[in-house]
Amino acid sequence: EIVVTQSPGTLSLSPGERATLSCRASQSVSSSSLAWYQQKPGQAPRLLMYGASNRATGIPDRFSGSGSGTDFTLTISRLEPEDFAVYYCQQYGGSFTFGPGTKVDIK
Amino acid sequence: QVQLVQSGAEVKKPGASVKVSCKASGYIFTGYYIHWVRQAPGQGLEWMGWINLNSGGTNYAQNFQGRVTMSRDTSIRTAYMEVRGLFSDDTAVYYCARETGLAVAGPFDYWGQGTLVTVSS
What we know:
- In chain A, about 0% of the residues lie in helices and about 50% in strands.
- By secondary structure, chain A is mostly beta strands.
- In chain A, a hairpin with a 6-residue loop joins strand 4 (about 35-40) and strand 5.
- Chain A is globular.
- Chain B has strands at about 5, 10, 20-25, 35-40, 45-50, 60, 70-75, 80-85, 90-100, 110, 115-120.
- Chain B has no helices and 11 strands.
- Chain B is mostly beta strands.
């Protein structure tokens, strides 16, 4: 099973700042089969990115993803108030596993 | 528009079973896989398994093999997930989610609203 880890656990930032979230897989993820989800309290997760660097439908371009192999990054260029949430990465190249999440909260 | 609507909250005693439904609309039902993901209170997302809505084939995460059954009724466009032998640790919100991939695995683009299952004596 591919184990996925995320860092940091919590990121405290102010609106307008840049957020950089990391995701690491225990084995190389085939075909960059890596997705990012955003989850707000009381809501289901929402797909943000897939294939490591492709934005899902309706996702603003302040969100970007990069990486390959075992190391991936989600970047939010300028945080908007609605971006404060928990972010999960998921690999779907070898079965399906989620990382433990990174909480982005207001500093 | 694509929608996944899940059944309502459940309260069960330890050792009981629960069956959660997920009714799909707005797309070709049998053209996709449905996955089930659970989230314990204050915790992260845990993948449970998938069902191929066309063939009915299933694949369960190792942690749930032997205790979970996923099924579907194509006539009413509904997928089901049953957990048997419930423990208090099974208290969680259970989500169904549609996978974008078919021939090749893909991410989950639509999610149900979640069903809270509480296991308590």
